[in-house]
Specification:
Blueprint (H helix, E strand, L loop, with lengths): L2 H13 L8 H16 L2 H18 L5 H16 L3 H19 L5 H12 L2 H19 L4 H14 L4 H15 L2 H17 L3 H14 L3 H17 L3 H14 L20 H5 L4 E9 L5 E10 L5 H8 L7 E3 L2 E3 L1 E10 L4
Antiparallel strand pairs: 1-2, 1-5, 3-4
Amino acid sequence: MHLRVLLASALIALAVSAAANPRQEFNEAYRAYGAAIEQGQYVDAVASARDALRLAREIMDDDSPEVAILAFNHGYALAKAGRVHDAYRALIEAHRLVGKAFGANAAELIQVELELAHTAQPEPAVNHLKRALELAGTHHGEDSEFVADLKVEAATRIWREGGLELLVEAADAYQGLGKTDKYVLAQYWLGKRHFDDGRRAEAIAPMTAVVEGQSDDELVLMARRILVEALEHEGRRDRATEHCLAIGSAAMWTGVEAYEPLYERDPVYPEEKRANAVEGSVLLEFTVDAEGYVQNPLVVSSVGGPEFVAPALAAITGFRYAPRFEDGAPVPVAGVRHRIVFSLRD
């Protein structure tokens, strides 16, 4: 999503009208700013934006729309250059000027609020995002694609509180507008948010929507990996199998040494060992079958005492792997090894 870049370009374009009459020095500074932004040379953009704003204030009314936009350009360049604190102060001034030039509820303030949100401390950032959403709803309509895009950006990048509701609203808007790709992407972020917050069962439905409705292979694979973990965690092992197979069919085999599980079941720490602050580990060898299940685990070695062996064996049988594929078909992989570690620091 490139809301900030697109809107910044729109604001920059307005300032071109100011270049028809000013002195040559202003023209050169403004052109240098535009070129630096286009080329990603943000340190140079800061200097040029500062010069353009200074010169504009010498030859234009300070309450003019052009000066307001140039003030925003300066704050935008500072943000892109990583000077977040300076950017926020500059954007506060730009907010004042844009509001004065265009109106307290002007559409032009949406972009200013967004940039303020990205440069503010967490608490004021949320307030700027809420204001941007309020203005966007007024000028674009609550069910518009623009507002849905903004809700996804708010929910995924900055706004934690209320983020789930925003993602649901965005997904509904995209679905109503027939924006399938964006609908699926909103479902992905909704599922990931549930998953990251420990609500694995609630991640299953949105991630399944991604798998069923997305043409982006990379996004589908990420969704499948989350589905394997969520389904295994919920004890729905059969449902996880199709995703293990799909991931395995898309993966390049790199050898048994690099073979890593898609899902790991945590071992139960022996209470006696925990009480005595004893740590340990068990190295196991096993076969991964054609559906990604662990079969026939054997103990290769152990550290810390025999009490660690049984829980290690119990844990490894709950692991899932992406099966290896040969000639388009899944095959068992023998000689796979994994060390179960019992650490009191975890």
